[in-house]
Design goal:
The chain has about 170 residues and is mainly beta. It is built from one helix and ten strands. A hairpin with a 2-residue loop joins β5 and β6. It is elongated, with a radius of gyration of 20 Å.
Length: about 170
């Protein structure tokens, strides 16, 4: 009886396990000159089982870009965390100065980590960049889509959370 219980316990542990791992990521974000990088703060929405383990953000004011290099822990099937860049600006309304933040989103689909050679460009017309990886035959193809507003994306593709972790 004890052997049967032990075998059942070992079998149940194997059948409920999830594949996980760690991966390195690297990408560069270019911003329109209207949004100087020294005024941009970076945050990440951590997703169930996919979180940033370490990160190094390199700001280049000459090119108005930020290169993000680091590592993340993931569970297979959980997308890379959504990155949110916040430009802290101001707007004038009725002779009053108000803080106005502009949000830029980097969303991924079909990838546990993200490494790109080409920079991703954010502007007034491209506030949301969606990177998709699709299987095409024996290999994968990366597709980069640009959107100006979240309202045109299906809510299943935008993972909004109640918590964000600031990266720089």
């Amino acid at each position: 009886m004890m052997k049967v219980l032990l075998i059942c316990t070992l079998f149940s542990l194997q059948s409920w396990s999830q594949a996980s791992g760690s991966s390195a990521f690297s990408f560069t974000l270019l911003f329109d000159w209207k949004f100087p990088v020294e005024k941009i703060k970076m945050y990440v929405y951590e997703k169930n089982g996919n979180y940033i383990e370490n990160v190094h953000c390199i700001t280049n004011e000459e090119t108005n870009s930020i290169t993000v290099i680091g590592g993340n822990h993931y569970i297979v099937g959980v997308k890379f965390p959504t990155l949110v860049c916040v430009y802290e600006g101001v707007v004038y309304r009725s002779d009053t100065v108000l803080q106005k933040n502009t949000l830029f989103y980097l969303i991924t689909h079909g990838m546990e980590s993200l490494s790109l050679e080409e920079p991703l460009f954010f502007s007034d017309n491209n506030k949301i960049i969606e990177v998709k990886r699709r299987q095409k035959g024996e290999s994968f193809q990366t597709e980069i889509l640009k959107h100006d507003d979240l309202q045109f994306l299906p809510m299943s593709s935008v993972h909004i959370s109640t918590e964000m972790v600031r990266l720089n």
